[in-house]
Structure formats: C-alpha cells, structure tokens
C-alpha cells in the first residue's frame, strides 16, 4: 500500500492506496528544490541584483509617494519576509519616503486586520500605512484608458498618484492567466470591478490559451500586461515557494523581464505529464488557498487535465469560508445543472460580464465531464451539493464514493498540490 498525504487547511489528509491501483503521483519539482541560501538571503540578493532594472534604492531617491502593492489574504505570499526587506531597501535610498501598502484584493472580500497581522506581523501592521483596495468603491478609483480588448482601465487612485509603484507577490501556475505574479498585482489586483469584468469575459476564459502555464497568446495576460504598463508599475519582487510555503527563489526588477524569468523557472519546475486515470485526488495546496469553493476550482483544473472523461475528481479543501462568493454560488444554486450554467454564461458578451461568472464557467466545464467530490468537514455540505458537487467529510469516504461510481479497481492518480503543477 502507498500512503499519500494531501494538504488540507493547515494540516494534511492521508490515504492508503494499493500499489496496483496507483497510476502515479504528480508533483512539482519545486517541492524538492534545494535553495542555495536562506529565504532572507534569497530575497536580499534579488534586490541587490535586480533584473533589467536599477536597484530599488536608486529608484526611490527623490520619490516622495511610494506605493507597494501587496497580495491579500487568499495568497500564501511570505510577506513577513518580503515586506521588511522592501522597506529597508526603499529607505536606504530615501529615508523620508511616504510609503503605503495597497492590498490587492481584486474581486475578493476585504482582508481583516487579523489576516493582515498573520500576513505581515503585528509590528509592521502597527507601524506602516496599509490601505485595502475596494474594486467597488468609485471614490478610490480613476479611469486612465482602454485595454487592448477594448475594456475600460479603471484603477486605484493611490497607485496612479504614486511617484513610484512597486509590487510584491509570488509566481505559481494560474489556471487561466498562465501564471500568477507580476502584472496580476495590477489587474485584477487594484482595478475596478468594471475592468475585472471586461478582462474575465466568457470568450477569454474559453480561449485555449487561457490555461495554466501559457502566456503567449493568452488574451487575459495581454490585457494584464498592458494594464501594468499603463499603471507604470516600476519594480516587482516576486518569489517562488515550495509546499511548505518557504521561499526557494526570488526575482526582482523590471515588471516584465523579472516576471518572465520567474515564469520560466516555475514552468521548468511545475510542468508534469498527465497520467490519465478514472479517479484523481488533489487539493488546493492547503491554507490559505483552500478557504472556499471558489478558490478550490483552481486545484480542480489540474485534476481535470489528468482525469478521464466521465471520471471522478476528489479535491480536499477545508472551505471554512464557505462558497467564497455569493454570485458564484448562485450561478449553480439557481440553475438546473452545469449545462444550464455553461449555456447562460457563453451567451453573455464581454460588455455584460457578471461578477464571478469566470469561476462558474470553469467549474461548469469541469462538472460537464467529471463527477467532483469535495472533501470538507468545515463547510456546510448543503452548500457543496447546491452547486452540483458531491460532499464527503473524509478522504476515505470520498474514495468509497468514487469507487461506487468507477469501480473498486479504478486507477487512481494523485496530485497532492493541484495549484503547484502544470499538467500537460
């Protein structure tokens, strides 16, 4: 028997699978990568030798208003390490800089003070100015132009008033933007809901290039990179993390070139060959990415790429925050099934995009071809089943359910961390 450990919240779920049924285990090489130095040294060295850019301390000279765009509570960015080193570098060049952390909430709920403390540490939260972006608060926003797709680019006013705009974040495969990090700090991070909706339209999400690991020809990426250019994002510090959320690589410098270097590294580490199976077990990488069903769709896409049509996907996700979006939930709860959800969404043109339809579109795509069982003991199972997923309290229970559908001898592929891999 093979023992598999699947991230779940801040812990793991385990299962015993017979060797003759285990088709394979797909993991990112990043989880086994041995960094050449400590997390702090990796970040500091990237700041000392930025890619295609002067040092941040040089850029900060003479710049009064400096804004650092930082990820929100849904991203496992190790800001406790990154943020102090960014501040140190900026103040080395400009001790009197007026610095603001702008939290890139995108379309998510606001980050709570408790979550900010977990992210940054109590000292930084107490001492630094932190502003939460709100994509629906028009008083915070300003229109600055158009996107290549024709959508309006409406962005946080603080970012546009900055004399130096910086972003921190991390790079991992992203299920429709290709990769996270870089330009994503701007769009969707700190733009208006109007801009997010235009970028996340049905035709873009349905595009064959809107997949994990793909940037070239990806229509969402094209809009995102243009938004970051128009926002004058001058410098980024993006890290790559392993399964323990520890930094294994850092990329600092030019918004485009540093991010590209990071995506090339992640692509090499994360790309795995699909091992088709009737049952695929995966996760959303544990906390903080598995707090709700909305986010868990990301992990489902990795399983989708290795699950035979008609097969069963089991995703372990705590979902302690419930569905993660009322609009997302209602797409399913107020429909008669995934086929109806998909038909309605594909009939919506880009100018009429509805909040969270992109997540519902991808979830429906998966449900049209697979049975999906969500393993959670922290979310009401009625919410799960309202959305046409099946629910189980334990991984063992989910496996029994899957075997009832696919048979006791069905082959099983395991993808312990679904958001960390690019399945080809």
From TrEMBL:
GO molecular function annotation: lactate racemase activity
Residues annotated as domain Lactate racemase C-terminal: 272-423
Domain LarA-like N-terminal intervals: 8-212
Pfam families: Lar_N, LarA_C
Superkingdom to which the source organism belongs: Bacteria
InterPro entries, alphabetized: LarA-like (IPR048068), LarA-like_C (IPR043166), LarA-like_N (IPR018657), LarA_C (IPR048520), Ni_dep_LarA (IPR047926)
Name of the protein in its database record: Lactate racemization operon protein LarA
